[in-house]
TrEMBL record:
This is 3-hydroxybutyryl-CoA dehydrogenase. Residues 7-185 form the 3-hydroxyacyl-CoA dehydrogenase NAD binding domain. Signal peptide: none annotated. It comes from Pseudonocardia sediminis. It comes from the Bacteria. Belongs to the 3-hydroxyacyl-CoA dehydrogenase family. The chain holds residues 1 to 285 of 594 of the full protein.
Length: 285
């Protein structure tokens, strides 16, 4: 019989973590959101409140529904608060060491049947699975930014994932109104493996003053119907995250398409991370 996921946990309340919490809470699930950094937890709470009140203003939710949605979310600072959940999604920054350590810790706290998922965009899910005592119950569950809007979830199965775990998490993702695709454990999975060659190329064109940033973006928006141009999208993703993804894919494949354009490192060093720092290719209020 298929597993039911009645309560869920999310670790990390950055851009992706907060979006994933919102996805779960919108679908009626109680969510325990763990963020060990209290200031980041506050930012996550503000993000969730802002997103919910935007939905009220746009007439998508009543004030009562928004209050109920926020009431389903418990923000905690200790992993021990995950003890009773059926599924955990890890959404901390892209560091294999930090994620591996976290998986080993969460493994000790949750029940033996709890499924552990990582929202990693390019790191090895197998490396995370083997740090736990339940490698067969670990999968990648990769959401896209903004998580409440983008329909895709990539489910990453490793060579040791139990097949019924993949089936159950796929059914769960579909119950969240997402489209789920299943892929093996290769850096970049499907969407990023295809997308980041293009984004990297756009960053190089910008670096070479091939065209202005506005015209590079307009070219893809109005010529190809993309919802946003590549430089605006890089600002949304975060230049640090984009750089990590490119580096990981390049290290695995040595495909020059993914060798990060030098401008990434320069902008990151200067603190220009995109929307989250107020400035990237563009400047934000
Ligand atoms: N959280 C929640 N909802 C949000 C949101 C957010 N951060 N941003 C936008 N929305 C919602 C709005 O509330 C609105 O909802 P309704 O239609 O229900 O009212 C809807 O999205 C459209 O928003 P806007 O009208 O404000 O703006 P828009 O039409 O210009 O769309 C966009 C904004 C959704 C970001 C759109 O430009 C888009 O889809 N861009 C492409 C994003 C993309 O490619 N993402 C993938 C990045 S790669 C990745 O994430 C993988 C990785 O590992 C890095």
């Amino acid at each position: 019989m298929a597993r039911e996921f009645r309560t869920v946990g999310v670790v990390g309340l950055g851009t992706m973590g907060a979006g994933i919490v919102e996805v779960f809470a919108r679908s009626g699930l109680p969510v325990v959101a763990v963020e060990v950094d209290a200031a980041a937890g506050e930012r996550g709470r503000t993000h969730l409140e802002a997103s919910t009140s935007r939905a009220v203003k746009r007439g998508k939710l009543s004030q009562e529904q928004a209050d109920e949605l926020l009431g389903r979310i418990t923000i905690a600072t200790s992993l021990s608060d995950l003890a009773g959940v059926d599924l955990v999604v890890e959404a901390i920054p892209e560091s294999l060491d930090a994620k591996a350590k976290l998986f080993a810790e969460v493994d000790k706290v949750v029940g033996e049947d709890t499924i552990l998922c990582s929202n990693t965009s390019s790191l090895s899910v197998t490396e995370l699975a083997v740090r736990t005592g339940r490698p067969g119950k670990v999968v990648g569950m990769h959401f896209f930014n903004p998580a409440p809007v983008q329909k895709l979830v990539e489910l990453v199965r490793t060579v040791v994932t139990e097949p019924d775990v993949v089936d159950d998490v796929k059914a769960f993702a579909e119950s969240l109104d997402k489209v789920a695709v299943v892929i093996g454990d290769r850096a970049g999975f499907i969407a990023n493996a295809l997308l980041f060659g293009y984004l990297n190329h756009a960053a190089r064109m910008y670096e070479e003053s091939y065209a202005s940033r506005e015209d590079l973006d307009a070219g893809m928006r109005y010529g190809c119907g993309y919802p946003m141009g590549p430089l605006a999208l890089l600002d949304l993703i975060g230049l640090d995250t984009a750089y990590e993804i490119l580096e990981t894919m390049y290290a695995e494949s040595r495909n020059l398409l993914h060798a990060p354009a030098p401008v990434f490192k320069q902008m990151i060093t200067a603190g220009l991370l995109g929307r989250k720092s107020g400035r990237g290719f563009y400047t934000y209020e």
